[in-house]
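Appendix B. One record, verbatim.
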Amino acid sequence: MAVTDKRSTAPQGGSFLIERHRAESILIPEAFSDELKMMGQAAEQYVEREIKPDFEALEALDYELSVQKIRKAGDQGLLGIDVPEAYGGLDIEKTASMLVTEKLAQAGSFNVTFNAHSGIGTLPLVYFGTPEQQAKYLPGLVSGEKIAAYCLSEPGSGSDALGAKTRALLNDAGTHYLLSGTKMWISNAGFADLFTVFAKVDGEHFSAFLVERDTPGLSLGAEEKKMGIKGSSTRPLILENAEVPKENLLGELGRGHVIAFQILNLGRLKLAAGAIGGCKEMVRLASGYAQERQQFGKAIAEFGLIQEKIGKMSAETFALESAIYRLTGAMDEHLAGALTQAEKLAAIGEYVVEYSLLKVAGSEILDRTIDEALQVYGGYGFSAEYPIELAYRNSRINRIFEGTNEINRLLTSGQLLKRAMKGQLELMGAAQAAIQGEPVTDVSAPEPLVDAFVAVENMKRAALLVAGLGAGRYMQALEQEQELMARVADMVAGIYLAESALLRSERLLGSNRGEISNLLAKIVTFEAFDQARVLGSEALRRIGNRDGLAKLESYLSDHGVDLIALRRKAAESSYQQGGYPL
């Protein structure tokens, strides 16, 4: 199978699996514009000045204080990044939106409050509202005078959102829809002014509605008693013939699924971006504590098993950060050429594969990083007197938020297959070439990274091999083989993370960050390579293809890299930098 160079600066979604993208075409944090850096600094300052001084009160769920902090965020322009200027917003790059989300990770439970409002709460109006609806509601949402919430889940429909039971009936006068049903797990419900509610018109046409808080027939259940994110409001929304004006139908009748899924896609990306900030903080805390804590006459930072944790945490954080901003750079390239609302939605919808795989990767990398930080702290990490315990509890919801990780794994592989069947991505030919082809032995890349880039190209072939043989074996029944689909998804995610880290590292060669980026990228790449061998082998045993197993072994033969040594070096860098080494 030939390796092609991608010359476009705006690649197709999923194309990384069959093309080799150029390092100079991707966005990396080190190349952020001054405007982007200023947005990041503004978000950092907001957290330092507004959130940290009142952190404990916010974690205790103070409605009035939460509302006050949202309004402060509005005053500082943090709520309108995605909103058109005509309604008081900034309407700047998606990268800026993700950078602010990364910085807000230090805000604890308030991070959920902020993102539920500025993300899934506000974006349905931005992308699907009529000019009249936008003029009525967006200025207040941008200023923080009004707070938004998103209402999709129900007691009996979580992942199966289209199985919703909430109903909407047009009244006899034809002036109002009467909504009845219960929505669950509604973030910001306790103080939200505007709810985006999904319901089936006449029990059939899945649609979205803008519902104001004082709507007759609307009430709220009690606050949920949650494991974590206790400082965010989470309540059921109860609708009993709630009277919603006909003009508050959002988007087209029966097209609510388009709104729901597009907004969830952006929510997934924001969740992964927030994970970067959480990971960086955990690396900082664990590195600092390891150097202070003495056992057996020396700092635990000197012990190999602690170094291994710090090195791996740093490498995974580097890969996640590289992947997120690689993707937002591509999104911004697409959006720059989008003039109409339909073109903007098409540009955002281009990357459904990447949104799902990064949501899974971000949430699981964050969980692993927090877990290892807690282990470095030992017994103190288990104590609520230290910061890890709260992060540990707050993080767990991320694997459920915005579609469970199980659903997002199925979406990753399922959307790849869907794009292939539609002719949007030439996967079938690439998979056949992987089944028949030979391992890559050389690529055009800078010498320090050649072996790692060769590993990534062979990982691509391995993933295509498994996907191709799986499709040939199960055909239309492939979607029922969820375990197989999940393994393909994890192989694909490992490829995207590793390649993103390598492309960033290539850009940084020769700089003062070149050596450490090279080190972190190699750790991620060869760890993913080893994991791909395990995932691929399990999948091919399920398929029952011995020839495929032999081919997989040829693509993923032992790389010979001493990962233990690399992790030790990465840990040393983290110690020297006082945390995340970049």
